[in-house]
Every structure is written in C-alpha cells, then in structure tokens.
Amino acid sequence: MKPLLLCCLALLPLLAHGKRIAVEDYAYPVTNPFIATIAGTPSDAAITLPDARDIEQNDYALALKKRSELPGVFYQGTTLKYRLAEQEGRAPLLFIIAGTGAHYASGKNELLKKLFYQAGFHVVQLSSPTSWDFISAASRSATPGYSPDDADDLYRVMQAVLANHPKLKVASVNLAGYSLGGLHAAFVGALDKQRRALNIQRVLMLNPPVNLYTSVRNLDRLVQTQVPGVSNQQTFIDGLMQRLTRFFEQQGRIEVNEAMLAAFQSSPEGLSNEELAMLIGSAFRFTVADMVYTADLLNQRGLITPKDYPLGFDSDLAPFMKRAMMCDFDCYIAQQLIPWWRAKHQGGSLVQMMNQVSLYALEDYLRDNPNIAVMHNADDVILGPGDLGWLERTFGERLTLYPRGGHCGNYAYPKNAHDMLEFFHD
Fold this sequence. Notes:
Elements: H1 3-10, H2 12-15, H3 33-39, E1 57-62, E2 80-85, E3 91-97, H4 107-118, E4 122-126, H5 132-137, H6 147-164, E5 170-178, H7 180-195, E6 200-206, H8 212-222, H9 233-251, H10 258-266, H11 273-298, H12 318-325, H13 329-345, H14 350-357, H15 363-368, E7 372-377, H16 387-395, E8 399-402, H17 414-425
Parallel strand pairs: 3-4, 3-5, 5-6, 6-7, 7-8
Antiparallel strand pairs: 1-2, 2-4
Helix pairs in contact: 3-11, 6-7, 8-11, 11-12
C-alpha cells in the first residue's frame, strides 16, 4: 500500500477533532472516502431533485475561434457548448464550473444545476478549462494549468454567455465550482473584482485544491497503489471488467447507479481500498491523457502527435492516446506547461509557478472577501499536509468542513445541499 493511501485512512480519526461539522452531527452514510468519491450519495439518503424533463433548459454554443485554427480531428470542438436552465422571470444566475477534464453536462454539474434550479436560480453549466472541448474552442493558449489564464478564458466565456442571452432577466450573477472548478471560481472572482464586467455577488468553492501541485500528485500517485495480483493499469482494468461481468450475471441485469455500486461493494466481487484508490487514479490518468493529447496537437508541439501529421474526422487516434497515457501530470508540466509559462510569463521555477496557480496567490482576496466561501471534506484525497489549516486561517467562519464525503461525494446529501443554498440566500 502506498503512503498516500495510508495517510488518507490513518488521518481520519485525527482530523475528526476541530471540525466545523462534528462527526456525531453528520449522518452521511458512506464512511469510506474512496467509495464516497466514486459512488456519491446513496439514493435513499439523497435529496429529491427535479427530473431533467421538468427543467426549462437548452444547450447553446459559442463560436470563439476560427475554424481554420483547428485540425480536422476537432470538427466537434469548433464551438464551445454550454447549458442554460432558465426560470420564467427575474432570478439570480449561477454559473457552475466543472472539475478536472469534465464537460458542461457531466454528472456533478447536472446535480448542482438541479439543486439550484429547484431553488429558483437560472443556471449556466460550463466545461472545465482542462476539458478537450474548452481547450479546443475557448482556450487562447490551448495549454491549461496556469490558473490566471484559465480564469481569463472562463471570464471571456461567461461574458459571451450573457451577451448571447440579452433577454434573460438576471437579478444577480453568482459563481460556483467543484474540485478544480472550485479553484477556477476563486480566480474568476478575483478577476471580476478588478474588471467589474460581471459584478459577481457570491462565489462558492466546493472541494477545491489548495496547492494544485499537491492535489494532482495525490491523484496521480493513486494509480501506483500496490494491488495484489495487479502488475499494471491494464491488468487492473481487465480484472475489474471480469468482476463486473460476474456481478451483473448474478444480478440478471446491467444497471449502473449508486445502488448498484453499493450492492457491488457488498458482494464477493467488491473492491478493496487499494483497488478503489487505483480506480480513482486511473480515471484521473485518462483525464490527464486527454489534456496532454489535445494541448500537444493544437500547439503542434510534436510530443504526442508528429508535427503536421494529417488528422481528419475519421483518423485513428488510438496510437496517440496510448502515448498520451504514458504522460502523467508531472510529465505534462515538464514538457508543456512550464516551457509555455516561462516563454509567455517570464517564469522561473516550478515552485514559483505553483504558487501562482494555487490558492496561495489569492490569499489576501480570499481572506478579506465575505462573499466567497469554501465547503470541503476532511477525508478528501486531494488534500495535502497543512491544507486544512491554511483554509481555516484564511476563511475562518466561511469554511464549512464535513467529516466525510471523500472528493465531491456528498453534494446530494441534505445537509450539504441546505448549506450550499443557504450561502447564496443568506
């Protein structure tokens, strides 16, 4: 078992002291942080949310780049799509920024949309600046990871969305983001304080990284968790598929939801903590590979795809994605992000850049702003040593810390839902 996994599990009783929400006052039913991260809130413990058919919503697209700027393989990424759920009359508007690699209609964005729409908000769902669609259609550098520039791209997108809906009756503009989207929300809020083009009223950060480098390395290292009988990532995935197949055969049906995951974990086929950690890490590695591939191709760096290689809409991308899978986040930083940052921003060391892209860079803004808040979980696998202390010192009463929930696993739990809505209605 790797040190990260040991730390995540061993620190749980220590972190229970000094929590804003005490363990005995929080009945979220999933105590394993890895299961909470993967499965979320069990349906029998979750709030009731509206069906998508009962929401007045549509998908729209923004044309922010010229078609000639994009290779043919990105024929679906020439415009940036987003989703708007609209109330009948005047209402507060909430922009939601997705987490690492996630697009606008990802599961957590949908959950948060339903929660806030039900509470009377207009809601705009945005893709993460690290998702392939945002990189291809909206990123001016096509090299995500430098938070100030990612926020600048997001800010331009948000302005374009509002301009695209001049008849939308907006009482106030607000912002929320989860995981990496939480960090992006903070940088967008700080940018709006300077520019005042959106006049954002409130900003909510859900499970954000404090030190971006620490968080992504935590996730990267989960792939390296030692699992008995597993020699590499492909062996793990093959074994998982075999176990799922046996489970579904026993169940007599294929149905993937929270209840199924709970039943799977209770069956003989259930995963160990080491395997759960590796599953989370594998999902993150696929996300990073997508970013690595997209950034390399759009900038014609030749690291993954040879320069000027002819790629059309029907090209076979599998060989290039396999090569991208070999490049973790450290590799992306070293090969693409740091060289680009040094050239554009006259940057220096890795430590210097990481301070600029992490929450540390916004400490004064975050400490002095009563309209920005953080909600986090003490057992979140992305947190590193000292992160919770920094959040407590910086945010004070504006930090809500739950004893469990893993990484973004408890948004549908009634207590969390109530706290999120209360922040915006306070």
